[in-house]
Amino acid sequence: MNTMNQNCMAFQINRVAQMLDVSRSTVYRLIRDKHLTLVKVGKRSSRITAESVSELLKARESTEGG
């Protein structure tokens, strides 16, 4: 599953929800449970680090793969 743009360092919450095929609520739960890292960008914007998304996907693959 290679849906991440290699040049992007952080993603909007909607984009992460789309990439993971989950709801925004699930993304917020993953942030709350420390599975994804949220960073503030300005006063009203937030992004999720590409690194945390990659780590979550690796963990998901290892549990699904055996």
Describe what you observe in this structure:
This protein is of the alpha+beta class. It is 50% helix and 17% strand. It has helices at residues 13-20, 24-32, 50-65; strands spanning 10-11, 38-41, 45-49. A 3-stranded antiparallel β-sheet has the order 1-3-2. α1 packs across α2 (24-32). The protein is globular, with a radius of gyration of 12 Å. The protein starts with 9 loop residues before the first strand and ends with a helix. The mean pLDDT is 90.
A few lines on this structure:
It contains three helices and three strands, in the order E-H-H-E-E-H. It has 66 residues and is of the alpha+beta class. The chain has a three-stranded antiparallel beta sheet.
